[in-house]
């Protein structure tokens, strides 16, 4: 590289941009911390009539921990035990794959008490994010 790198702001960046940034991060992380053992975890909730995905759990295993990025239960199925089943199945997958635990984040207006009820411990929070609420971080070790 003959010139110094430059920073460019790209509104509406492409998946190629994302992939290049991620590739640079993974290269560094694996040199410093060894192979991450990345594995995707995806559980979908399907509408029995249409087969449409209406919710589910999306996560990834990296360095022996499952990070739950999304957990969504269709509004019509809330308080039916479906969220408990999704979380329990994800935890079982994590255990089977040798994980030390699970971590995730949620907003105060979402489901912090749901995670506490399932044995998750709060390990951090961001006050006033979004404004007037909080973002909470939870973990559960096996």
Question: Care to give the gist of this entry?
Answer:
With 142 residues, the protein is an alpha+beta fold.
Write a structural description.
Residues 1-142 form the N-acetyltransferase domain. It holds the Pfam family Acetyltransf_1. InterPro entries: Acyl_CoA_acyltransferase, GNAT_dom. This is GCN5-related N-acetyltransferase. GO terms for molecular function: acyltransferase activity, transferring groups other than amino-acyl groups. With 142 residues, the chain is of the alpha+beta class. The protein has a single domain, classed as Gcn5-related N-acetyltransferase (GNAT) (Aminopeptidase). It contains three helices and six strands, in the order αβββαβαββ. It has helices at 15-33, 82-96, 112-117; strands at residues 39-46, 53-62, 65-72, 101-107, 121-127, 134-141. It has a six-stranded mixed beta sheet. The longest helix is centred in the first third of the chain and has 19 residues, at 15-33. The termini are far apart. The mean pLDDT is 96.
Arithmetic mean pLDDT: 96
Radius of gyration (Å): 18 Å
Q: Would you tell me which CATH topology applies?
A: Aminopeptidase
Give the helix level as a range of percent.
25-40%
* Class from secondary-structure proportions: alpha+beta
In total, the number of domains comes to 1
CATH class: Alpha Beta
Task: Give the tally of β-strands.
Answer: 6
Query: So what's the overall shape?
Result: globular
Which key features would you list for this structure?
single chain; 142 residues; alpha+beta; Aminopeptidase; 6 strands; GCN5-related N-acetyltransferase; GNAT_dom; acyltransferase activity, transferring groups other than amino-acyl groups; Acyl_CoA_acyltransferase
